[in-house]
């Protein structure tokens, strides 16, 4: 039994993926010997409904000066975050001398638009290399982890915030009470806290278990988010399902009683009850579906590799793929290499299974028959870009929501 990070009650594990490396820890062959592993296990707290990792590696193991994820590499994400910036500017940053804070601002994909509008802002981004990329775009950034102490320092230096926003970060932070206490202090009385993360309902419905890896300590639902906010005098006043990252939820939060609560909150809670997100049986069923997905994917890959007499090539060295590769035990005998646009990952090897990561130029040269789609959350962008592959008769192998060859 572990202790829930939100309500401190005991909670039970429902799946172990076995030993896992750092999901974004792409490495050189000299580093194989010293590679770090931990057991990736997930549990469900029946009291506050939070789904969470039992153990998480130390934050410095994951977020540092060589962090491999640069948000701006996806055109789809650029469009998504420009739209968010426009929404913040017109709905929440339109008062007198507004101030915007972003938690986990990465390479400035969102804040660059706030900066360009001449609005006072601060990006809190502990991974120095990506924070530097943001600064080069004119984004004011501080390389620290957000918590209650950081919030107090920001208040002292800049004052209180009209907006605190965060995308794909809040679910990374285990010390949630410190984060929420910091948010509460840092917000102006009428300020808003808006964050988005991959949505538990989508993970359950699509068996997208590759969302489960070291960085993601929490798997949020509207129910579990509401419960944790209540403890800090904060209130969820709206929710917005998003298609990004294979299905996300955006949460709109304010000081309790300061904003009218949209009917969408209750509607989404009702949907979650229908989906059974409050019951352990749902997670036991998810485990069965994950085990089946592993069986189906390994069987399909072995069949294809045998037929074509060479390993398949994979597309997108995502953090998510680290869970799939290691859990399904897919090595270089089944996957020749992974093509990825991130310069920092190219020439390195995938965490744990040590599959080479190469640039898209290498992919072009190798004329593959099949491509295993790891970056499935960018499906549309990739299909638009790779029309030639399909026109030449190439086939995509997918595993979310089901294992199969795309037609
Ligand atoms: N917001 C971007 C980046 C998400 S990746 C996007 O949606 O594309 C997660 C980011 O959170 C990383 O850049 C990481 O360095 C940062 N991060 C991790 N823990 C953090 C913390 N405690 N405070 C602020 N940022 C954090
Ligand atoms: P992403 O799915 O955003 O994140 P995560 O690491 O959180 O699972 O990562 C996408 C990866 O795929 C990133 O390394 C860049 C790569 N990529 C390509 O190689 N080609 C593309 O066309 C796109 C959209 C992404």
Report a brief summary of the structure.
By secondary structure, the protein is α/β, with parallel strands linked by helices.
What does this protein look like?
With 407 residues, the chain is of the alpha/beta class. 35% of the residues lie in helices and 23% in strands. It folds into two domains: 71-275, Vaccinia Virus protein VP39 (Rossmann fold), CATH 3.40.50; 282-405, 3-Layer(aba) Sandwich (Rossmann fold), CATH 3.40.50. The protein is built from 14 helices and 18 strands. The protein has a seven-stranded mixed sheet. A six-stranded mixed sheet has the order 15-14-13-16-17-18, with helices on both faces. Strands 1-2-3-4-10 form a five-stranded antiparallel sheet. A hairpin with a 5-residue loop joins strand 11 (234-242) and strand 12. It is globular and about 65 Å long. Bound molecules: S-adenosyl-L-homocysteine and thymidine-5'-diphosphate. The site of S-adenosyl-L-homocysteine has 20 residues, from loops.
Layout of strands and helices, then pairs:
Layout: E1 2-3, E2 10-20, E3 38-44, E4 51-53, H1 59-62, H2 75-91, E5 99-103, H3 111-116, E6 120-124, H4 128-135, E7 141-142, H5 148-158, E8 161-167, H6 176-186, E9 187-198, H7 200-206, E10 218-219, H8 222-230, E11 234-242, E12 248-255, H9 263-275, H10 280-308, E13 312-315, H11 319-327, E14 335-339, E15 357-358, H12 360-366, E16 370-373, H13 379-385, H14 387-391, E17 395-398, E18 404-405
Parallel strand pairs: 5-6, 5-8, 6-7, 8-9, 13-14, 13-16, 14-15, 16-17
Antiparallel strand pairs: 1-2, 2-3, 3-4, 4-10, 9-12, 11-12, 17-18
């Amino acid at each position: 039994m572990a202790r829930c990070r939100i309500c401190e009650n005991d909670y039970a594990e429902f799946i172990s993926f076995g030993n896992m490396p750092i999901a974004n820890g792409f490495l050189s062959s000299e580093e194989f010997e010293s590679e770090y592993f931990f057991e990736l296990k997930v549990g469900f707290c029946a009291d506050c409904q939070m789904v969470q990792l039992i153990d998480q590696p130390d934050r410095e193991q994951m977020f540092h000066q060589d962090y491999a994820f640069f948000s701006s590499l996806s055109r789809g994400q650029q469009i998504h975050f420009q739209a968010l910036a426009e929404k913040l500017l017109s709905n929440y940053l339109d008062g007198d001398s507004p101030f915007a804070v972003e938690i986990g601002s990465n390479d400035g994909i969102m804040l660059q638009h706030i900066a360009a509008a001449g609005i006072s802002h601060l990006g809190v981004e502990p991974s120095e290399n990506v924070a530097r990329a943001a600064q080069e775009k004119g984004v004011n950034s501080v390389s620290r982890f957000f918590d209650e102490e950081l919030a107090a320092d920001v208040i002292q230096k800049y004052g209180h915030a009209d907006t605190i926003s965060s995308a794909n970060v809040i679910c990374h932070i285990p010390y949630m009470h410190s984060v929420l206490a910091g948010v509460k202090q840092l917000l102006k009385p009428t300020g808003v806290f808006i964050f988005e993360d991959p949505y538990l309902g989508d993970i359950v419905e699509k068996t997208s278990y590759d969302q489960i890896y070291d960085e993601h300590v929490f798997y949020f639902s509207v129910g579990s988010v509401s419960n944790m906010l209540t403890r800090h005098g904060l209130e969820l006043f709206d929710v917005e399902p998003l298609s990004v990252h294979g299905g996300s939820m955006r949460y709109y939060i304010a000081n309790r009683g300061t904003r009218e609560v949209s009917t969408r909150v209750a509607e989404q809670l009702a949907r979650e009850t229908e989906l059974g997100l409050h019951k352990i049986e749902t997670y036991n069923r998810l485990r069965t579906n994950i085990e089946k997905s592993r069986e189906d994917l390994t069987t399909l890959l072995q069949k294809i590799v045998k037929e074509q007499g060479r390993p398949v090539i994979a597309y997108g060295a995502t953090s998510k793929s680290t869970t799939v590769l290691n859990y399904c035990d897919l090595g270089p005998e089944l996957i020749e290499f992974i093509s990825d646009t991130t310069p920092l990952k190219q020439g390195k090897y995938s965490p744990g299974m040590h599959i080479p990561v190469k640039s898209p130029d290498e992919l072009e040269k190798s004329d593959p028959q099949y491509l295993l789609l790891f970056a499935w959350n960018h499906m549309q962008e990739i299909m638009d870009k790779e029309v030639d592959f399909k026109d030449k008769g190439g086939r995509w192998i997918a595993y979310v929501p089901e294992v199969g060859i795309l037609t």
